[in-house]
Design a protein that fits this description.
- The complex is a heterodimer of chains A (170) and B (216).
- Chain A is built from eight helices and one strand; from the N terminus they run H-H-H-H-E-H-H-H-H.
- Chain A has 170 residues and is mainly α.
- In chain A, helix 6 crosses helix 8.
- Chain A is globular, with a radius of gyration of 17 Å.
- In chain A, 35% of the residues are buried.
- By secondary structure, chain B is mainly alpha-helical.
- The longest helix of chain B is centred in the middle third of the chain and has 42 residues.
- Classes of the chains: A mainly alpha (170), B mainly alpha (216).
- At the A-B interface, helix 1, helix 2, helix 3, helix 4 and strand 1 of A face helix 1, strand 1, helix 2, helix 5 and helix 9 of B.
Chain lengths: 170, 216
């Protein structure tokens, strides 16, 4: 495959899975400038690793692995708050039309709840909400399927409890 | 509020995202030509430069020991410094090896553990370098003065002066540590936070969280 063919293939796959990029960035960064910075860092790493991507595997699983690894490191990097944005502030990698008003209240609340989780559980919830099987989640995170099931069940209980405390819906 | 109920809302949100988000193709194309922005490569390059500098120091100190072989008051401090430089070189190379081994294609728990191990190693390295430089100041002065100017510090200043300088170095170090610990919350520079042990605690804490996360 020539470089331009590889670029075209990569572009098509990223376009197809841009939602993963959007959701990961929105779950790990509150600040729009940081979000864009993170999106660029993820894309850069995806492109750098694209030559080792095994086409027999699901692109989404591979993309999730890289995106979550980068996002967790980015989130944990203490200098995030003082980082410079790579691109101009008015030019964003992922542009959302009418970003917040398009989201139903439940989704906004969900993003808020995800935002409060630790970086590892954030990854788990994102993968679960996106409909990945326990096996796929285990594969991305590097933990056992049983462990995934236990953690999902615990997170469900936590959410139920928090909702009960906040809205009295227990 | 149930997670499974929210899952269906999330699926709806997912469908809408297809129409509402747009990828900036110009910026995406820039990704193909972007270089040296990757933090780990930047770190590996910095470490490699440090490693080369350390190699020059080791060779120079070895040469110094060889030509001053019969004068233990110069060869002993130089040999101690040489051993410290060799240890620093080994530590730098170990960090380079760790940084280059990080492959983001691997599962999250594996990579995050490697990253935190590297981080903890770097913090310990910074702390050791600082501690050693405060203690090594006197032997460094003796060796540099002899090596570059041919001056004998023992005769020029006397043993008492050298001892006073070592004591002063230790006092500065103790005050520095105390200040770094006292004001660590306000520190933004990574090196200062490393000295204060803030980043070491954070790295160790996250490694413990990872271990907990991996448990069934």
């Amino acid at each position: 495959m020539t470089t331009s063919e590889r670029q075209e293939r990569f572009q098509a796959l990223v376009e197809e899975h841009k939602k993963i990029l959007y959701k990961v960035c929105h779950s790990y960064c509150r600040n729009p400038a940081d979000r864009d910075d993170l999106a660029q860092e993820i894309l850069f790493q995806l492109w750098r690793s694209f030559h080792v991507f095994d086409e027999r595997l699901r692109f989404s699983t591979w993309m999730y692995r890289i995106a979550l690894n980068i996002a967790i490191s980015f989130y944990r990097r203490e200098s995030v708050r003082t980082r410079h944005v790579l691109s101009g502030a008015d030019e964003r990698l992922l542009e959302a039309i009418d970003e917040t008003s398009n989201q139903p209240e439940e989704v906004q609340l969900l993003y808020q709840w995800i935002g409060e989780l630790d970086p590892l559980n954030k990854a788990l919830v994102l993968l679960y909400l996106d409909g990945n099987s326990y096996q796929e989640i285990a594969n991305v995170l590097g933990i056992s399927e049983t462990n995934v099931a236990t953690k999902v069940s615990r997170l469900k209980q936590t959410l139920r409890h928090e909702a009960g405390v906040k809205y009295g819906t227990r | 509020m149930e997670l499974d109920e929210l899952k269906s809302k999330w699926a709806e949100h997912d469908r809408k995202l297809d129409e509402s988000i747009r990828l900036n193709r110009q910026l995406l194309r820039e990704t193909y030509t972007r270089k040296a922005k990757f933090a780990l490569w930047r770190l590996a390059t910095m470490l490699a430069l440090g490693s080369m500098g350390m190699l020059v120091v080791i060779v120079w100190l070895g040469h110094f020991v060889a030509i001053n072989w019969l004068m233990p008051r110069f060869t002993v401090p130089a040999a101690v410094l040489d051993l410290a430089a060799i240890a620093a070189l080994a530590a730098l190379n170990a960090q380079i090896a760790l940084a280059l081994k990080i492959d983001y294609n691997q599962p999250v728990a594996v990579i995050q553990k490697k990253l935190e191990t590297l981080r903890r190693f770097r913090v310990r390295y910074s702390q050791t370098i600082l501690l050693t430089s405060a203690l090594a100041w006197a032997p460094m002065f003796i060796v540099v003065m002899k090596g570059f100017l041919g001056a004998d510090v023992y005769r020029l200043f006397g043993i008492a002066w050298i001892a006073a300088n070592v004591a002063f170095g230790l006092a500065v170090l103790a005050i520095g540590f105390w200040l770094a610990r006292k004001y660590r919350e306000r520190m933004s520079r990574r090196f200062l936070r490393d000295i204060a042990g803030y980043n070491l605690n954070a790295a160790s804490g996250f490694l413990a969280t990872l271990a907990e996360f991996e448990k069934d």
